[in-house]
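The methods section describes the discrete structure representation at length, but only in general terms. The central task, working out the structure tokens from the amino acid sequence alone, is never made concrete. Nothing conveys this as quickly as seeing an actual entry. For illustration, here is how one protein appears when written out as sequence plus structure tokens:
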Amino acid sequence: MIEAHVTLEIPFHDVDMMEVAWHGHYARYLEIARCALLDKIDYNYPQMKVSGYAWPVIDMRIRYAQPLVFQQKVDVHAQVSEWENRLKIDYEIRDAETGRRLTRAHTVQVAVNIETREMQFVSPPVLFEKLGVSE
């Protein structure tokens, strides 16, 4: 499986008066890990555009088990779990020091032909190529 890890420190501007990260910022943390994963397969957003496909996120689920707090270092792990008809990426956010799982999430992206704006019901061959798997 294709996977990537990034380590982040929760900044002051992401937290509320209780020093807990606002839930909306989690999408950004996932995006940072997703971009690291896409860089790993040389199919990040610029390469997607060149290939003729946009890959909008159509679904995002987040399970907040434990809060992220100011100055906490966290590891965000992203892993491709589906690719045939959509691109599904699973995530875990863990405390970098203890390894304790804090959050689980996933995103789903679908291929959209940039020229026609039509959603593709099967992932285009370029994704299989980038992932190193056969169709």
